[in-house]
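Q: What would this chain look like folded?
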Amino acid sequence: MKMDVSNFLESYDVIVVGGTPGGIATAIAAAREGCRVALTEYHAHLGGMTTSGLGKSDIENRSMIGGLFAEFVGEIRSFYAKSLGEDSAEFERCRDGYYFEPSVAEKVFDRMLGASRESIDIFRKHQLESVSVVDSAVRQIEVQDRQTGRHRVLSARMFADATYEGDLYAMAGADYRCGRESRSEYGEPHAGLIYCDYEDGRLLPGSTGEGDDRLPAYTYRLCLTTNPANGRMLSSAPDGYDRSLYLPYHDDLAAGRMSAPKQLMTGWGYYPEHFDTLLRSLSVTEIPNRKVDVNINPRPLAFPFPEQNVGYVEGDWIQRERISLHHRNLTLGLLYFLQNDPSVPDQQKAMARQYYLPLDEFRDNDNFPFQLYIREARRLCGRYTLTQHDVAYTRRDPNAGLHADAIAVGEFPIDSFPVRRRGRQDTGVLEGYLGMLNGITRAYQIPYRIMLPKQIERLIVPVAASTTHVAYSSIRMEPTWMAMGQAAGVAAAQCVKHDLRCSDVPIAKLQRRLVEQGQILNPQIGVT
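A: My prediction, written as structure tokens:
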């Protein structure tokens, strides 16, 4: 596509599209290697989910991810040690820097980026409009300032797509997948249409393994406060509020689906006070300064979010905003229902009314997170496809999951939200839900090749990378994406410095540099 280059043509070594944690890590890593970097982001804030409500780092084995992520965690810990005192109960809630308030995470990211301010130009509130590809290589992008309407054309020698949606590589013409592979395509036991017992991981009747174009449910991740002096209660129901969407939670309560799990796991959002109440529709974890991280529990059959994301991925910016607003209203509607509906027992309503929207978070968005939780969207068709055999124990080669071109380690259990709302046949679990399959997931090496498109050069993909749906359900964590982003930034810098194609980067040299930076490459011993 030909672009009007009269619109503020600016040149860089590396351009990163997407101010997600993975994008931030890519930008910082490239800048520290001597590159001039541009970082563009659709929203007014950087940090993606980490600064938009996901107040805890999704990592089960802390020894597996180091580098820039460990630096981020260390900065979080230092902030709370200084502001709260290491002997305080509130400091304990930061879990050595792994749990945090969104506003604190944003301050830390901004400070880390600021340390390279001479090398990184940041374009907030800029949406990607078009991509110029010449001779199968990305050359330029056009972005629009959402506030002023001004268009900019940015050129670079290397590009990184760090969006959750894979927008840059899709516009560039790279091949990608969207949806679920069939069980037969890669022989993955948990692929395709599936019913899985979330208590023990057993496959249930009705699991056909058929592939489709369905995606895990999107939600918002809330940050709420228990401090009324720093909070506000919802004064009215959100637009389009329909209490009938939430009344089926009573059926889940009566059926015992709101009870305690068979096994309590630290950090999985279990709040014993909420067991056997309607508040079990939420997964609540304490974070510092009298706040809580709130996920929406996907185990009740009343969970209303599946299928509400249809049309988001391939939609234009207006369509995406409309779908995001719908999810916002569904989320606020659930909170309003728990706090106000006459069908909710008074004691449970009183429990729900202990939670307020925090006045000191998301100040420019009515104290509500700005980033919709895009758990999965497009997935690149790259030079290697990571599958369940790489990330979990299966009957295949026991050495699967080890790669000569490893640039990071993944370790989070396979975990995917439901893809369908309740059907007449659903009596125990929603279709598509793979709930924290820690019994089968192993620590595994992430190969460099999954970040490389097959046919498009000068482009590297540290977020919406080349995996199957099942493998993506493990790799889709912000700490992992930060590790991949660090590798992407170093690799991009080597391409710029030595005029290399992405596929020609010397792996041994890349790995040595990552090790020097504290990156973990070997899951077998937890150290490099």
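The mean pLDDT is 94.
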